[in-house]
Amino acid sequence: MPRQVDHEGRRRLIADAVCQLADEHGLEGVTLRDVAARAQVSMGAVQRCFRTKEEMLVFALGHIGERIGERVRARLVRSPAQSAGTALGHAVTEISLLREEHRAEARVWLAFVAQAAVSEALASTLKANYAALQDALTRLVAEAFEGTRRAGAPDPQREARTLLALADGLTTHVLVGHLTPQEALDVLDAHLAGLWE
To answer: Fewer CB near the last or first residue (10 Å), C or N of the chain?
Structure first.
């Protein structure tokens, strides 16, 4: 009886290999041969999962977006009794990729962002990832200010866009060494605190 192959599991394994190589060498250092070696599968297995390198990169970018989204959801589920404002802070902190354990993921994310400027396929995937994150943040902002009648309450969609841009910018500033992770968190905390002033 032929052995069953977990096709989706293999695609995720290959995506993880792409991310490891991109972290070490940037996207220009990602070759099918190196991905196969890192994932410990044959070149044929990689080619059966992905017709082109671009298709493989698009899947890997989507894979990173899913992991970030899952972490945001898990962080919110771990503390169900928190206020909507606290939930918003937790979500933006997860998206910012500022913690040391997410530094490699942040480098890979930004490598994909840079490549998306010249790749329509990657740009399309990145836009979808950002749209999903923006929708989640929009809901959290709306919940945080639900029932608030104070003048100057933020527009949820505009604030979600601002928070997403701030998160990306802070990620970049930490990676290049302009800010420490703590300084970036201080900027984020100050912005969030300003929403309630």
So the answer is: N
As a dihedral over the C-alpha atoms of residue 73, residue 76, residue 79, residue 82, rounded to 10 degrees, the angle is -170
Two tokens, residue 174? 């930490």
Q: Is 168 helix (H, G, I), strand (E, B) or coil?
A: helix
Nearest to 78 by CA among 68, 63, 91: 91
CA distance 117 to 90: 29
Which of 91, 92, 104 is closest to 174 using CA atoms? 104
User: In one letter, which amino acid is 146?
Assistant: E
Buried b (16+ CB within 10 A) or exposed e, 16-49: bbbbbbbbeeebeebebebbbebbebeeebbeeb
Question: What pTM did the predictor assign?
Answer: 0.84
pLDDT tens-digit map of 85-130? 888 888 899 899 998 889 999 999 999 999 999 999 999 999 999 9
CA 167 – CA 94 distance, rounded (Å):
9
pLDDT per residue as tens digits for the range 23-65: 999 998 899 999 999 999 999 999 999 999 999 999 999 999 8
